[in-house]
Specification:
mainly alpha, Amino acid/polyamine transporter I, 18 helices, globular
Length: 426
């Protein structure tokens, strides 16, 4: 089994699935249940259910594309094969802009759990986030790698801990439930909250960049998506119910570290400290993994001429160190903006989730273009239709920002080097 860097014979199914789960699970599991609960009350659980339904056909689309076009190009490669280099450039720009807000959001979540672990106030959350980003830059630049075996063990331990928290909250929580869970109002409120929690269901598009690390990508990639989806969805719903069963929406710091609050309410301070420490480790692993993927995207974009050529250079460890540092600087700017009150964690994660939803819509369009079978095109149309529904609940400002990223990437696409594309069997 290979290392995380891709050296060796390649990741097997277990290692690849573990890597996918640790990339996807992060702030989605440890902070968004609190944010959604504060915004939607007990209807928040429906936001998780609806988001899981919306992303299901998208995973079928990604699985099909990943089988046909395996390799490190990922989502941008799919759009390039379907619509050409300018569409790929627009996609890469949207991805880069999204990672530049999404990954700092994960780091901020980790920073608040880190502050709780060492007994500091939430005011030190931004400092903890900067520390996490700095650690990711240092480790990635020096070529530190997580082996497939270590990744699998870490994934298993973290899943056990999160499932324990979820079950304890669901079975032992005594918080009042004033709203009927199955009322029409609860369903409508839950649907409106999809944009808030959708970021939790992102990360599989980043997993598509890792298929070049697999020993058998054509066989394993669809299984990796299916298994990780089932595990992640079940965990999210359980964690949402645990928060709603244990806490009230007015709970202080609910939108910063809800899992710690759940364990504190059930078992006291010692248990909450353990959860905070565990959450810090999970989010640090998520920052490391996502930063690694983001730096490779920046390197790929620089190699194609979309970004400055210097960002494609690698050091003696074979690491694109300039791309890693550039990503770290961009993440630090967003964290600094949060620390001075310009932007909240909720708005950061919400903006990233909305961008990812648009990215998934582009994937459906690429799937429709590349594959002409009736079933393939039906999946693409159903996926695009479902993903378009939450767009009506989005703020126009966030959509304008996404449109600006796409437009600038399309305009810059003329700078990219042309290359031959692999043919896809139709």
């Amino acid at each position: 089994m290979s290392s995380f860097s891709g050296r060796g014979p390649g990741l097997g199914l277990v290692g690849a699935t573990s890597l996918a789960i640790t990339i996807v699970i992060g702030s989605g599991a440890l902070i968004l249940p609190g944010i959604a609960y504060r915004e939607a009350g007990h209807a928040a659980v429906w936001a998780w259910v609806f988001a899981a339904v919306l992303v299901l056909p998208l995973l079928a689309v990604l699985g099909r594309l990943g089988q046909a076009l395996p390799g490190a190009a990922g989502v941008a490669g799919y759009l390039r094969a379907a619509f050409g280099p300018r569409a790929a450039a627009a996609t890469e720009t949207l991805l880069i802009g999204t990672f530049c807000v999404g990954i700092p959001g994960i780091a901020l979540a980790g920073g608040h759990y880190l502050a709780a672990t060492v007994g500091l106030s939430p005011d030190f959350g931004a400092a903890g986030a900067i520390a996490m980003v700095a650690a990711s830059v240092l480790l990635n630049c020096t070529g530190t790698r997580l082996s497939g075996a270590v990744q699998s063990v870490l994934c298993a331990l973290l899943l056990v801990a999160l499932v324990t928290i979820a079950l304890c909250g669901v079975l032992m929580g005594t918080a009042p439930r004033p709203e009927p869970l199955f009322s029409s109002d609860a369903l409508v409120t839950g649907l409106a909250g999809v944009g808030t929690v959708f970021f939790a269901f992102t990360g599989w598009e980043l997993v598509s960049f890792t298929t070049g690390e697999y020993a058998r990508p054509k066989r394993d990639f669809p299984w990796v998506l299916a298994i990780s989806y089932l595990v992640v969805t079940a965990l999210y719903v359980l964690l949402s119910l645990a928060v709603q069963s244990t806490l009230v929406p007015e709970e202080p710091h609910l939108d910063l570290r809800p899992m710690e609050l759940v364990m504190h309410a059930l078992f006291g301070g010692a248990a909450s400290k353990s959860v905070a420490a565990m959450s810090t480790v999970l989010l640090l692993a998520s920052v490391l993994g996502n930063s690694w993927g983001a730096s490779r995207l920046v390197m790929s974009s620089a190699s194609e001429g979309l970004l400055p050529a210097g960002l494609r250079e690698v050091n003696r460890f074979g690491v694109p160190h300039r791309a890693v540092v550039a990503c770290g600087i961009a993440f630090g700017v967003v964290i600094a903006a949060n620390s001075v009150g310009l932007v909240s964690i909720a708005s950061i994660l919400g903006l990233a989730g909305k961008n990812f939803l648009l990215l998934y819509l582009l994937c459906c369009a690429a799937h429709f273009k590349l594959f002409r079978g009736v079933w393939d095109r039906t999946v693409a149309v159903v996926g695009a239709t479902l993903l378009a529904i939450p767009l009506f609940s989005f703020e126009w400002a966030s959509l304008a920002w996404s449109a600006a990223l796409l437009t600038s990437g399309f305009a810059l696409g003329s700078r990219q080097k042309t290359s031959d594309e692999s043919l896809v069997r139709r």
